[in-house]
């Protein structure tokens, strides 16, 4: 028997999201989706929920078209965090023509520098270090790219760090993070950046640089130009928006890479990486 059922429209989505007995998630979702309009609506027969999340006795259970089986989480922060994945899939699906890259992106004076997602390379921590030094974050995880000039678009979702924080972080950087601490659990900490520190939802900027991160213990820091063919292959792997024709995806990624300065950054120490960037 269903309990309380709420339907919400999230910014830019064509179908609502249904929450069943899941009111305890709302504070986390409103905080993590910093810039998204989230409007409660009455259910409409011809607009079925694109995502449904239900609180059971011991967990939160989510269903969507992008899941082969329900996603189940006991912890509310984990449940809210994983819900964001489906919301991004829905956003990309409802905005035809977008590419969408797994990457971090930080805005410098000339435009965006993109850091493609590499396992445990420290892109979120490095991105926030750049923000602490005065740059502006576009994303620490996912970057939609418009088909109008191949412009990167901010999603307005708070960045997330793995816990515990690395021991080598400087005291001033730890203080920067601590002052902006948002929702957290034993595994993750969201960082509540201000409007001047993180671009708002829908803000666009051209991609001017692509830097592949190579974090290695005791590595000598080096920023080297890299062959664009290598970057193209990497960027194709990072794109998960598959609704566009394959040839069009490849052509657009070639164009993005061709118009960007491409580097590899090998580093161990955040401060050295920051200096090179």
Question: If you had to describe this structure to a student in words, what would you say it looks like?
Answer:
This protein is an alpha+beta fold. 27% of the residues lie in helices and 32% in strands. It has helices spanning 26-32, 76-94, 123-132, 171-178, 228-238, 246-258, 270-276, and strands at 5-10, 17-20, 38-41, 51-55, 60-64, 71-73, 99-108, 111-116, 136-139, 142-145, 151-153, 160-162, 181-184, 188-191, 204-215, 222-225, 261-267. Strands 7, 8, 9, 10, 11, 15, 16 and 17 form an eight-stranded mixed beta sheet that branches. A six-stranded mixed beta sheet has the order 3-1-2-4-5-6, with helices on one face. Strand 4 (51-55) and strand 5 form a beta hairpin. Helix 5 (228-238) packs across helix 6. The longest helix has 19 residues, at 76-94. The radius of gyration is 19 Å and the shape is globular. The termini are far apart.
Topology, please?
Layout: E1 5-10, E2 17-20, H1 26-32, E3 38-41, E4 51-55, E5 60-64, E6 71-73, H2 76-94, E7 99-108, E8 111-116, H3 123-132, E9 136-139, E10 142-145, E11 151-153, E12 160-162, H4 171-178, E13 181-184, E14 188-191, E15 204-215, E16 222-225, H5 228-238, H6 246-258, E17 261-267, H7 270-276
Parallel strand pairs: 2-4, 8-15, 15-17
Antiparallel strand pairs: 1-2, 1-3, 4-5, 5-6, 7-8, 7-9, 7-10, 11-15, 12-14, 13-14, 16-17
Helix pairs in contact: 3-7, 5-6
């Amino acid at each position: 028997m269903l309990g309380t059922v709420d339907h919400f429209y999230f910014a830019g989505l064509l179908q609502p999201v249904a929450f069943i007995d899941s009111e305890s998630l709302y504070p986390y979702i409103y905080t993590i989706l910093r810039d998204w309009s989230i409007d409660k609506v009455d259910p409409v027969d011809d607009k079925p929920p694109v995502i449904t999340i239900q609180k059971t006795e011991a967990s939160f259970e989510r269903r969507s078209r992008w899941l082969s089986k329900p996603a189940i989480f006991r912890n509310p922060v984990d449940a809210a965090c994983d819900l964001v994945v489906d919301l991004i899939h829905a956003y990309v699906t409802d905005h035809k023509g977008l590419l969408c890259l797994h990457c971090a992106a930080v805005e410098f004076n000339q435009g965006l520098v993109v850091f493609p997602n590499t396992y445990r390379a420290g892109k979120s921590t490095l991105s926030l270090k750049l923000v602490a030094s005065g740059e502006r974050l576009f994303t620490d995880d996912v970057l939609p790219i418009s088909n109008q000039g191949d412009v990167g678009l901010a999603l307005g979702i708070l960045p997330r760090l793995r816990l515990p924080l690395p021991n080598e972080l400087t005291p001033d950087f730890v203080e920067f993070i601590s002052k902006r601490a948002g929702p957290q659990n034993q595994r993750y900490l969201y960082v509540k950046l201000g409007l001047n520190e993180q671009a708002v939802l829908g803000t666009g900027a051209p991609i001017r640089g692509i830097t592949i991160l190579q974090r290695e213990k005791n590595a000598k820091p080096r920023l080297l130009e890299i062959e664009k063919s290598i970057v193209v292959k990497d960027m194709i792997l990072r794109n998960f928006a598959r609704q566009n024709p394959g040839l069009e995806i490849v052509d657009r990624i070639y164009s993005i890479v061709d118009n960007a300065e491409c580097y590899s950054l090998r580093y161990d120490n955040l401060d050295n990486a920051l200096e090179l960037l």
